[in-house]
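Because discrete structure vocabularies remain unfamiliar, we first show an illustrative case, written as a sequence plus integers encoding its fold.
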Amino acid sequence: DETEFRNFIVWLEDQKIRHYKIEDRGNLRNIHSDDWPKSFEKYMKDVNCPFKMQERQETVDWLLGLAVRLEYGDNADKYKDSTPDGAKNTDNTAKNAEPLINLDVNNPDFKAGVMALANLLQIQRHDDYLVMLKVKRLTQDAIAKASQSKEGLPVALEKHILGFDTGDAVLNEAAQILRLLHIEELRELQTKINEAIVAVQAIIADPKTDHRLGKVGR
């Protein structure tokens, strides 16, 4: 819905991104104006969004990533020092060696984190959030498939904001690559579906005629 989309952009700017001064947000807030698309296009340029206004899905994803990054930057100390309740009294050495050993999978915050990560990586939602965690598990077959050489266009990772920071540049890059690989798999699936539809349509559109039986069809 166009109105909801515009309200969403205004909310992001007002509450999270805050690139403009309050007095400079008037044109963006005037969501019923015929000139709003121009104001939005200018806003995208001002925040250095690499996508065009017509690429709405990519633009929304990029702005959300920017908002998450700024939110983290404003509260870095808070998030950096957060510790799971069950791990506060554990030995530091053991905790560093097994960072997930005290993870409570039934914790509402954990569930919310899984859903947020699924949205960031564009993984389809499932009623059982634990199933979603298995979507990107790297089996030996997956590793072998990823190792196969495949021609394609180079991708500039710096254009794709991850939306969160693991604290490790290598892990950040790996998460970006996983996300792009997932999108590539979805596109391959869509291509196969389209090919199947075309094949079925070709059969339906070109039936064989058997004059002896007085019937048309296979």
